UniProtKB/TrEMBL annotation:
InterPro entries: AIR12_DOMON, Cyt_b561/ferric_Rdtase_TM, DOMON_domain, UCP037471. Keywords: Electron transport, Heme, Iron, Membrane, Metal-binding, Signal, Transmembrane, Transmembrane helix, Transport. This is Cytochrome b561 and DOMON domain-containing protein. Heme b binds at H208, H244, H277, H313. SMART domains: B561. Residues 1-25 form the signal peptide. May act as a catecholamine-responsive trans-membrane electron transporter. GO terms for molecular function: metal ion binding. It comes from Quillaja saponaria. It holds the Pfam family Cytochrom_B561. Residues 48-160 form the DOMON domain. Binds 2 heme b groups non-covalently. The keyword Electron transport applies.
Length: 392
């Protein structure tokens, strides 16, 4: 017979043991390897739930490592790399593990730049490479030759969502991904990791995104709507004109600031180029600057060139409208913020679209009615949706 006291003691102990093991499994020291292989040092890497175990043999400059991480999605990849020439991804010599035809494999890649990820030999010797997968965690085992008397190495690690035709697909660019690098001190001295850089860069990208969405993506279209529809109402003349001007001039000012942050970001990200987004951005800036000059060179309303000026001004305006919205979407794809931001923008732009359609209909009704009123009088004037030529 087990007495109640004993029963509760045993229960309490098992709960304690359970708790203890589950907590300690969150750190590298509790991780075990096949054949009871032991490594002299281990490290809980600060991002992407990854771990590194290693033994450094300085007598023959060899480093035996195990890197553990969960791939970003089930059929994704994990990677651990040494960068002999710099601190980031560009230039790193990577071991990447993923499932190929259902079998987990590890391959070596020379990542000379963000766009060139080539399966190749590395710039140092690697041997005894293999990978294992269990419980959603992949382990990469390898031995690498390190420079003689090395004390530190630049390490970079990463996880990605998928593999297409044997090639690892692009990983995300969240803070965690950007911060997945540091200096590995081989003898167990102070380890250092990338910290604020990813954060401040992300902040800059968000500022760039917000400025440009507000200017090219929202204010410009609103200014166009004002110019096209509000002036139909005679009572709104010349208020629509000042509204239009202030809307577009503030859009321009914010847009130029956003454009500047974009150029800065572009110049800071060596190796990554979003050519389409960049070129559209430059075109937008040039066209918008042209519009500002057009304002200054505007012929008087009754000048014979005024109609040409109108065609030109409207043409450039609509081009900016389309390119601006297009580039905002390209930007969303690059920055890849939480879905809700893109959805919010789609809602705003759809609402503006619906408002425009309604106003378009109202404008036609107003103009047609005006026309039929006028047609009973000697001179019919309003023959155009723009309806402005004959005012004042
Ligand atoms: C270095 O020594 C270790 C342990 O003795 C051995 O396993 C490894 O193969 C050696 N590496 C080289 C490059 O000779
Ligand atoms: C990696 O690629 C770069 C650029 O193509 C090249 O210069 C370098 O020699 C390559 N490294 C190795 C180890 O193949």
């Amino acid at each position: 017979m087990v007495s109640p006291a004993k029963f509760f003691l045993i229960l309490g102990l098992s709960v304690f043991v359970l708790l203890f093991t589950s907590v300690s499994s969150l750190t590298c020291t509790s991780q075990k390897f096949a054949n009871n292989q032991l490594y002299s040092k281990c490290l809980d890497l600060p991002s992407l739930s990854s771990y590194l175990h290693w033994t450094y043999d300085s007598s023959n400059s060899s480093l035996s490592v195990v890197f553990l991480a969960p791939p970003a999605q089930r059929d994704g990849w994990i990677s651990w790399a040494i960068n002999p020439t710099g601190t980031g991804m560009a230039g790193s010599q990577a071991l990447i593990a993923f499932k190929s035809n259902g079998v987990i494999t590890v391959k070596t890649y020379n990542i000379s730049s963000y766009t060139s990820i080539v399966q190749s030999k590395l710039s140092f010797d690697v041997w005894d490479m293999r990978a294992e997968e269990s419980d959603g965690l992949i382990k990469i085992y390898a031995k690498v030759k390190v420079p003689e008397k090395a004390e530190k190495l630049n390490q970079v690690w990463q996880v990605g969502p998928s593999v297409t035709a044997g090639r690892p697909d692009k990983h995300e660019f969240q803070t965690e991904n950007l911060n997945a690098k540091g200096t590995l001190s081989l003898n167990g001295g102070e380890q250092s990791f990338s910290t604020g850089e990813g954060d401040s860069r992300l902040k800059k990208k968000n500022i760039h995104g917000i400025l440009n969405v507000v200017s090219w993506g929202i204010l410009f279209p609103v200014g166009v709507i004002i110019a096209r529809y509000v002036r139909t109402f005679q009572s709104a003349d010349p208020a629509w004109f000042y509204l239009h001007i202030s809307c577009q001039v503030s859009a321009y000012a914010i847009g130029v600031a956003g454009w500047g942050t974009g150029l800065k970001l572009g110049s800071e990200s060596k190796g990554i180029q979003f050519t389409g987004h960049r070129n559209i951005g430059i075109a937008l800036f040039s066209l918008a600057t042209l519009q500002i000059f057009a304002l200054l060179l505007r012929p008087r309303k009754d000048h014979k060139f005024r109609s040409y000026w109108n065609i030109y001004h409207h043409g450039v305006g609509y081009t900016i409208l389309v390119l601006g919205i297009l580039n905002v979407f390209k930007g969303f794809d690059i920055l890849d913020p939480e879905k809700k931001w893109k959805s919010a923008y789609i809602i705003v732009i759809a609402a503006l679209g619906v408002i425009s359609l309604l106003l378009e209909a109202i404008t036609w009704v107003v103009v047609l009615r005006r026309k039929s009123n006028k047609s009973t009088k000697p001179y019919g004037g309003y023959n155009n949706v723009d309806g402005r030529q004959q005012q004042t």
